[in-house]
Amino acid sequence: MTAQALEQRDLTVVIGLEVHVQLETATKIFCGCSTEAADDEEPNTRTCPVCLGLPGALPVLNEAAVEAAVKIGKALDADVAEETRFHRKNYYYPDLPKNFQITQYDAPICSDGTLEIAVEGDRRDVGIQRAHLEEDPGSLQHEGGGIDTADYTLVNYNRAGTPLMEIVTAPDFRGPAEVRQFLAKLEEVLEYLGVFDSTRDGSLRVDANISLVPSEEARADGTIPTDALEAANRTEVKNISSHKGAEKALAYEVTRQKNAVERGRGVEQETRHWDESRGITVSMRSKEEEKDYRYFREADLPPLQVADWKERVPIPELPDARRERFREEYGLDAEAASKLTSTKEVADFFEDVAAEFDPDLAATWVADNLLGELNYRGMEITDVSGRLDEFKRLVELVAAGDITVKNAEEVVLREMLDEGDDPDTVIEREGLGKAAAGEVEGAVEEAIEENPEAVEDYHEGEEGALNYLVGQVMGKTGGSADPGTVNQLLRERLE
Amino acid sequence: MSETPVDAEEVRHVADLARVDLDESELEEFAAQFADILDYFDALDEVPEVESETDLVNVMRPDEVREGLTQEEALRNAPETEDGYFKGPRVS
Domains plus CATH for chain A? Predict the structure, then answer.
């Protein structure tokens, strides 16, 4: 297709993704080195002959990485292959100590899945063509300049061998915002599965294929025929490291391609590098083609037959299903159900509380109060997971009316989070236990004696005077009296 | 395989992929050697099939951390290092 012809047509954006996610295992995929990066760790301190590619070292597959891959396959409703095997992908670059990467080629562990996303309120399935296991390369630092101007390169193999799952989607995205939604959804699902940690630096990396196809080529259901896709030149954008980054990088690249077409230059088929700090994509001279990787069987790793693991390896209820169930089982509205399933830990926490208390009360306390206060402090639910019993005790005190809602929210919960105390300790220290009846009555007596003017005003019909007296009583009881009761007692006493 | 002679251009491409710098005379020399090496592989076609051992499947290890190398050990064979890193030329 020539650029001239394209200029006059309506163009549809077509994007497909290769998403690399690091799997949360204790050790690397082919050796027993730890995957746990300590803060400010020294380079090359988590290596062994296998992940350094020393002669004679033999890889042995980590069972937990396979288990994680099967879980992902199940969650994406994919097929788990009867037999799957590993290949060597050969290329010479110092991030690969062996000069090849062990990956999967013709028989990936998972294929043909889907992940549902919501696009402008509509639910849509994104096709997952395949998902395969491979090893992460090491990390490079280009010293004294950028990637192409540096004086030299420093290499750290601590990351080399971290298990990765590469998830390849069908070209089902029609814009950058959809990609961002997909990535957020994928992260959510992977975190529910317990196989992924989004807070780990570099745990998600994305390569995206982008092309512009004449809109008239699209089928009625919005899919694009293969020949139309192949006729369009595409760019592959590499080095995207977050879902926010993906939306920005793709928005940039779509605009760049549209401009190129409008100016009659057309789009060149090439690999481009997303430069996050500059917010642009730049052309990468890549001489290598698919056949240059000279894939061949990794003879050191026997094939895998783990299709039956699909039965054996359980996965938890996934976020969409859980949201739906929360609405039905607990009668929550969409917003509350969504907040309470934002992570598996939040959902588990809520269900623990809801098992013992009224679901509405539990929802208010977890979704509004607890998550609100945690968010304000930059804390996560996982910071308080171990204090579930203390939190339940607080809800119990509120439910029983032993403490006012206001005090529970504004004093006890906050001090529990700030001071790390249990609710009874805070209540004791702050004197917030609901005042004993006698104490409240005493305070009412005192307030009346000390404020003859207010009493007089009240008798003259000023309702504001009563509020003033209620305030005085509340002050004397340190806020622990129930305002309704105080109001009642004052009225009775003043009649 | 050996019916297709290996030409200098192919040797250059393979050398590029392996980041090996060859001059013109070396290209010719290696082209001849490549052809010889590929001929050796033809000999394998004449080896009769033998019964092999049962193929292994599902060889895996538990996800348990094992002691690896110290930084000093890891870097011991490196010609150049800096601050605990392997040091190499610019790559792009």
Answer: 3-312 (no CATH), 325-430 (no CATH), 437-494 (1.10.10.410)
